[in-house]
Structure formats: C-alpha cells, structure tokens
C-alpha cells in the first residue's frame, strides 16, 4: 500500500559541528542557514535548531566554545538520500578553511540509550572518532567527516543525542524567534508570534495566565527542557517602570550557562 504524505513524514535530526574558524561565521549560523535552505528547497520543514555545549579541554581542538548544533525537521523519509547529499555538499562548500566539519543524520528511533550515554559523556570527557563511529554504526546512524581532520563527527553525533534527550542546550532557531523585537508582550501575543512552549521563572514556576506581560530582550533564547522550548524569566525587581509588567527575560549571563 502506498504511503500518504502524512504517513511518510517523520522527524529527522541533523547534527553538525566544527564548521568554523576564528574569522568565520559560527556553527550556529551555518546550522540556521542549512535549515532554511533545506526548507526553501522543499526537502524538509525546519522545526528547530539547538546549541549544545560540549566538554572544554586543551586536548580538544575546538574553535571558540566547543559547541555543536542539532537541527530538527519534519521530512519525507523517502527523500533522506537527497537530504543527506544536500547537507554534504553544503558543509563541504560552506565550512571555513581549517575547520574539521562533521555531519550526523538520524531518526529519533535510532537515538537509543547507547547514543544518549555517548552524548552525555561528550559533555564531561574527551571522546575519540573511533568511539563515535562505533556508536553510530551500532545503531545504523549516518555520520561523516567532511573537512580537515573530520573530528567534527564527534560533536555532530553528540548534538543529536543531546537534542533527542530533551534536557540540554538552548534554541538558536524557532519559528518567529529571530524576528521577535524587544518590547513588552502578553504571553498570548507571544504564542502567536513565536513557537515557545512554556514561560517559567528561575525557581520553576510555570506562568499560566495568558495575559501575563513580560519584557522581551535580545536575549530571549529559550532552553530545551523535558522536550519543550522554555523561556526563562525573572522578576523585574522593585524598580520596574510598568506595574502591569513584572517579568523580564533572564540576564545574558544566565542564558549563556545553557
């Protein structure tokens, strides 16, 4: 029986790492650009891009922060080969000179406990390319190094595992996020403009009143928690100017911890 369009579309996770050098645009920029291009070419529909911080050590040859990115798509499973080839060509062409770009492509059902354990260890210790390839091969996950030493495969697989785990990193792209202008908004307005699931205070309080107003800054960058996009907010403090707006996006130094 032939599959319907709905039946043939499923989630697809694409991890990339080490596409930059000190003078080029970062891996986050490349991830967003790749996601938009795949969508514009009708190969997949971008749902989100997340940034994941990996282990920082002098034994790891990273560019600036040792972070990797994961893109989540809704994609036609029959076009996976086309998607893979597009990603390969994009990274080979756009990765900066001296970079060690790596690519990982997986479906959520391939990201099991073994991959999750690998991904978590990438935040705490130095991993090898052999470990990466062994883990990916065991689960039938595609990984490939495309430039330089190819060491970016390590972070590309880790990004996929961490994104799938649902409790790591922050969002670099969601519908409407980068177009959201600083200002004061009610939650019901924000839901129309951007795909943020939850608004929570630092102590975990979920803001449920849709009329709650908050001040949005340029650091309105949701984090990934329990598989949901969560914007962290804090009290404006005692000197807030607008009595109807007592919440604000948390400070930059807090967001940068994720």
List the keywords:
258 residues, 12 strands, alpha+beta, 27% strand, 6-stranded mixed β-sheet, 6-stranded antiparallel β-sheet, Alpha-Beta Plaits, 2 domains
Please count the beta strands (DSSP E, at least 2 residues each): 12
Order of helices and strands: HEHEEHEHHEHEEHEEEEEH
| Termini separation | 45 Å
Total domain count: 2
Can you tell me about this structure?
The chain is of the alpha+beta class and 258 residues long. The chain folds into 2 domains: 5-170, Alpha-Beta Plaits, CATH 3.30.70; 176-253, no CATH class. Helices cover 30% and strands 27% of the residues. It has 8 helices and 12 strands. The protein has helices at 5-8, 27-40, 80-94, 113-121, 129-139, 152-165, 187-193, 252-255; strands at residues 9-17, 44-53, 67-76, 102-106, 142-145, 170-173, 183-186, 198-201, 213-216, 223-225, 228-235, 245-249. The protein has a 6-stranded antiparallel β-sheet with strand order 5-4-1-3-2-6, with helices on both faces. Strands 7, 8, 9, 10, 11 and 12 form a 6-stranded mixed β-sheet that branches. A hairpin with a 2-residue loop joins strand 10 and strand 11. The longest helix has 15 residues, at 80-94.
Topology:
Elements: H1 5-8, E1 9-17, H2 27-40, E2 44-53, E3 67-76, H3 80-94, E4 102-106, H4 113-121, H5 129-139, E5 142-145, H6 152-165, E6 170-173, E7 183-186, H7 187-193, E8 198-201, E9 213-216, E10 223-225, E11 228-235, E12 245-249, H8 252-255
Parallel strand pairs: 8-11, 9-12
Antiparallel strand pairs: 1-3, 1-4, 2-3, 2-6, 4-5, 7-9, 10-11, 11-12
Helix pairs in contact: 4-6
């Amino acid at each position: 029986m032939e599959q319907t369009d709905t039946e043939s579309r499923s989630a697809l996770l694409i991890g990339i790492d080490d596409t930059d050098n000190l003078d080029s645009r970062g891996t986050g920029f490349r991830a967003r650009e790749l996601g938009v291009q795949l969508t514009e070419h009708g190969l997949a529909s971008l749902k989100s891009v997340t940034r994941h911080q990996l282990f920082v050590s002098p034994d790891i040859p990273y560019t600036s922060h040792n972070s990797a990115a994961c893109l989540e798509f809704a994609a036609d499973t029959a076009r996976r080969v086309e998607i893979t080839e597009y990603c390969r060509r994009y990274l080979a062409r756009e990765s900066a000179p001296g970079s060690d770009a790596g690519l990982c492509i997986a479906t959520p059902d391939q990201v099991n406990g073994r991959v999750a354990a690998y991904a978590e260890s990438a935040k705490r210790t130095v991993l090898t390319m052999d470990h990466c390839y062994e883990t990916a091969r065991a689960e039938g996950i595609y990984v490939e190094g495309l430039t330089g030493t190819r060491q970016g495969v390590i972070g590309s697989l880790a990004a996929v595992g961490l994104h799938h785990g649902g409790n790591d990193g922050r969002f670099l792209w969601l519908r409407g996020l980068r177009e959201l202008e600083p200002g004061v908004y009610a939650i019901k307005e924000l839901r129309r403009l951007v795909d943020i699931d939850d608004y929570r205070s630092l102590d975990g309080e979920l803001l449920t009143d849709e009329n709650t107003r908050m001040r949005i800054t340029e650091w309105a960058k949701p984090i990934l928690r329990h598989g949901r996009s969560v914007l962290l907010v804090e009290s404006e403090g005692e000197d807030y100017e607008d009595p109807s707006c007592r919440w604000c996006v948390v400070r930059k130094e807090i967001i940068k911890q994720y």
